[in-house]
Amino acid sequence: MNTSRVQSEVSLTVNGESRHLRVYPMERLLDVLRQQLGLTGTKEGCGEGECGSCSVLMDGVLVNSCLVPILQAQGARIMTIEGLAAGPQLHALQDAFLKCGGAQCGICTPGMILAACQLLNEKPQPSLEEIREGLSGNLCRCTGYTQILEAVAEAAGRGSAR
Amino acid sequence: MSTDHIVGTSVLRKEGRDKVTGRALYIDDIRLPNMIYGATVRSSIPRGKIKKITFGQGVRWDEFVVVSAKDVPGQNCVALIVDDQPCLADGVVNHPEEPILLLAHADRHVLPKAVTAVTIEYDPMPALFSMEESEQCKEVIHGTDNTFKTYRLEKGDVDSVWAKADYIVEGEYITGAQEQLYIENNGVIASFDREHGITLWGSMQCPFYVHRALMKLCKLPESKIRVVQTETGGAFGGKEEYPSMIAGHAALLAMKSGRPVKIIYDRMEDMAATTKRHPSRTRHRTAVSKDGKILGGEIEFAVDGGAYTTLSPVVLSRGTIHAGGPYYWPHVRIRAKAVATNAPPHGAFRGFGAPQSIFAMERHMDRIAATVGISSAEVRRRNFLKSGQTTITEQTIREAIDLEKLLDRGLALADYHAKRDRFRKGNESSISKKGIGIATFLHGAGFTGSGERNLSSEVAVAGTANGGVQLLVSSTEFGQGTKTVLCQIAAEELGLRFEDVEIIQPDTSQVPNSGPTVASRTVMVVGKLVQSAARGIRQTLTASGRLREGYSWQEFREACSKYFAEYGQLLSRAGYRPPPGVFWDDENYRGEAYAAFAWAVYIAEVTVDLTTYSVTVDDFVALQEVGRVLHPVLARGQITGGVAQGIGFALYENVVWQNGRMQNGQMTNYIMPTSADLPPIRVYFEELGNEYGAFGAKGIGELPMDGPAPAIANAVEDALGLKVDSIPLLPEDLFEAMAASSPGRRESQASNGVQ
């Protein structure tokens, strides 16, 4: 039971804010984000690193937060979907997902947008094949991906990928 | 009306901003004060009597709330069509993973250990794991003959055709189970107090199904049950009937504990315990003339319903009515049945029986073509239903659909003839074989036959204090765009801007029963009602002299606001009325099966790699006539998403069964397509309109699930000359089929590759 386990302290930066938290060492980053910090934009789809719904950026690298024990995030910079937009203005990717039909049920969307964010950080002008490859760790059951690929291409400023 | 048209444009999804910013609240994102967490103890055997339940050592059981069948205040069932499925097993289990006990605790982390600490001893009973075992009736597990439902549909005089036939073409076609695999697992929260009764929030398609099921289970009046749909992360039919089960469990725990209870399945539990697409078997025997015309035939359609009735009779019905495809059958006899096995009940999944029977029909058309010696395109062309002809249920096609033209356009878009010739030449010298395949099909929108009349759906539109309008419907949003399109319809009807119309969260205490969000019925049927109710608002405002003809949106808002201030309410309701002259005979399955059909031509191009035996879809053309497209981006998204699921159904998604239990209930080993696996999905629409749908719309959601699998199987046959009559077609299946079809073949292909 949780109460009988020993807690540790961890410091990390989440969406630009420093956080000092008491945690159970083997808690998942996903649970700390969702339950302790109330950042429920990060979703759980499978709990074993297959679906990518829990994707966040950790020191600029896309990780499945369901596979990260919280102590591994000591000192890390974490960005979740809540931290993507600066103020009320949507990030270009969010805007493109909205316009192009990249979000249907929306449950994969936060992870998918962060995967796209990492892709564009690495390759600002990706080819359609590079987008397909770059998002292949994030599952979407609604869209058949077509409009997601188009959204990413649009955000990359390349126009439609069709 | 002063605003530009809204219907036909791609306005931004109503809840889209919340979804792309992560603010949308799904059920697991919601926490109530004092809430505890529930978990389910399930059957480990397929069938048997429960002898003894032991609560093991090492768990502080006094901290847990425990619920068994004995705690059910009302009728222990998941109320649906036939109330044969218990909410909690009472003395007997009939499938693996059947719920037996419920546990709840304030700390969700202690639940898994507690679940495994419960030991259940059984007296096992013999169980049935296939349709064939069920049909043999060596063991009777349901009724007297293991059959949930049969239909017999007869048109003309089939027995007269065999003597006239130049060819008699026979085939048997098999489809496997398929997991809906919404990315958000099933989940609910229930709370209970004596004054208000039960409030249930959850991920679901049909709030009023849950409402009815809870009334029966909890023995509470209508007013003491409130069901609220929260943002739903995908459903595809998988959240049509199952939410009534998990809602019942949470409600029982909430009633016993007096605290709010949340139950969220993890992926393995969701995949092992909840519904899947019905496995099917279809047999065709067709009399064909020498020029490839269908003279008549017999079709036997069977689905595996699993252990309880649930929706199997209705799935069987839709599969039966779609079994003849978009072709003219002068004479036909269809015998259909849903049989019982000791697997978790199979259930609703996009297409609802039609993808199964259409797979068979479309494979069979290619078999007829090969027998007669004409092309896949030609055999379809010669048999298409024409306007004025009757379907297998003797429904006269009144739409001006021209399937030959639709086919021609599809063939041109896919560059079909040139590609087929090129592939044939190229295949001679390549170890990879390319092929191209066609499926032509139809899909009926709305409930079957008298279904819509029985539902008698209602909607309401309300004017508000600030002058905007609100839609009150029980239709749910789970990605398809319900909220957006219904608001478009009302805005268009009232000459308002999109942002002047809001739609409230489906809550059974607030909205009328607009029927379930299933069967591709929402835009067509509920949309039409929304249009009609919106018209009522305008009529009230004009009749009361507050609104002139040709008003602006500002004038509407002002008039609406003033009316509201004066009377405190501005409400308009609309209820379903069947179109005049519609006839349906439920006994003989004859008459107007659907108010409208959508029509489609899908063409798949594949490469079969004969070193890995994998099949890749290289290009996919999806051309369909769907009435009017009300929102191009959302409509296209429905098609691309459905095609992707259809490709999964054909090539990737294999449920591995062992003694009635799914063995590969993880995303690691149940494989759905990723972005790297799919071809460009090219979507095209024809728009003929439809007088029964809002602004001419027909149903669209299920259609794209029907065509991909047979188009792909037909393309694989085109590539290899190998008949693919069973899906899913995994590399190992293809390897075995090829090895079986010609033992010497592999060597000769290998040498081809060397040349």
Short note summarizing the structure:
The complex is a heterodimer of chains A (162) and B (755). Chain A is of the alpha+beta class. Chain A has helices at 29-36, 92-100, 109-122, 128-134, 146-155, and strands at residues 8-14, 17-23, 55-58, 61-64, 77-79.
Explain what this protein looks like in three dimensions.
- The complex is a heterodimer of chains A (162) and B (755).
- Chain A is of the alpha+beta class.
- Chain A folds into 2 domains: 2-83, Roll (Ubiquitin-like (UB roll)), CATH 3.10.20; 92-155, DNA polymerase, domain 1.
- Chain A contains 5 helices and 5 strands, in the order E-E-H-E-E-E-H-H-H-H.
- Chain A has helices at residues 29-36, 92-100, 109-122, 128-134, 146-155; strands spanning 8-14, 17-23, 55-58, 61-64, 77-79.
- Chain A has a 5-stranded mixed sheet with strand order 2-1-5-3-4, covered by helices on one side.
- In chain A, helix 2 (92-100) packs antiparallel against helix 5 (146-155).
- The longest helix of chain A has 14 residues, at 109-122.
- The model of chain A has no long low-confidence stretch (mean pLDDT 93).
- Chain B is globular.
- The model of chain B is unreliable at 745-755 (pLDDT under 50).
- Helices cover 30% and strands 24% of the residues of chain B.
- In chain B, helix 13 (482-494) runs parallel beside helix 14.
- Chain B is built from 20 helices and 28 strands.
- Chain B is α+β, with helices and mostly antiparallel strands and 755 residues long.
- Chain B has a 7-stranded mixed sheet with strand order 3-5-1-12-9-10-11, with helices on both faces. A 6-stranded mixed sheet of chain B has the order 7-15-14-13-8-28. Chain B has a 4-stranded mixed sheet with strand order 16-23-24-27, sandwiched between helices.
- In chain B, strand 9 and strand 10 form a beta hairpin.
- Chain B has 3 domains: 16-24 and 457-575, Aldehyde oxidase/xanthine dehydrogenase, molybdopterin binding domain (Aldehyde Oxidoreductase, domain 4), CATH 3.30.365; 31-125 and 181-273, Aldehyde Oxidoreductase, domain 4, CATH 3.30.365.10; 280-448 and 589-754, Aldehyde oxidase/xanthine dehydrogenase, molybdopterin binding domain (Aldehyde Oxidoreductase, domain 4, 2-Layer Sandwich).
